[in-house]
Amino acid sequence: MRVEFDEDTCIGMYQCVAEWDAFEEDKSKGKATLEGSEEVDDGVFARDVPDDAELDAKFAARTCPVDAITIYDDDGEQLIP
């Protein structure tokens, strides 16, 4: 499973931070950040999701009020949002 996070879309509600510890608050930017990720496109960060964190990653994506988090399965199929 893979997660992509669009930092430009993020509005800093930090609901993802409460759901998965891979997301952290960046008060200086007023946005969340995705720990351990790499920038794959302008403002879009991605990383693999460990097996034991899949449920947390899905909850983080579902709670994002602006759909800045997208979850893909191992075949590249979009699961969430």
UniProtKB/TrEMBL annotation:
<keyword id="KW-0249">Electron transport</keyword>
<dbReference type="GO" id="GO:0051536">
    <property type="term" value="F:iron-sulfur cluster binding"/>
</dbReference>
<keyword id="KW-0408">Iron</keyword>
<keyword id="KW-0813">Transport</keyword>
<keyword id="KW-0411">Iron-sulfur</keyword>
<dbReference type="InterPro" id="IPR051269">
    <property type="entry name" value="Fe-S_cluster_ET"/>
</dbReference>
<dbReference type="GO" id="GO:0046872">
    <property type="term" value="F:metal ion binding"/>
</dbReference>
<keyword id="KW-0479">Metal-binding</keyword>
<protein>
    <submittedName>
        <fullName>Ferredoxin</fullName>
    </submittedName>
</protein>
<dbReference type="Pfam" id="PF13459">
    <property type="entry name" value="Fer4_15"/>
</dbReference>
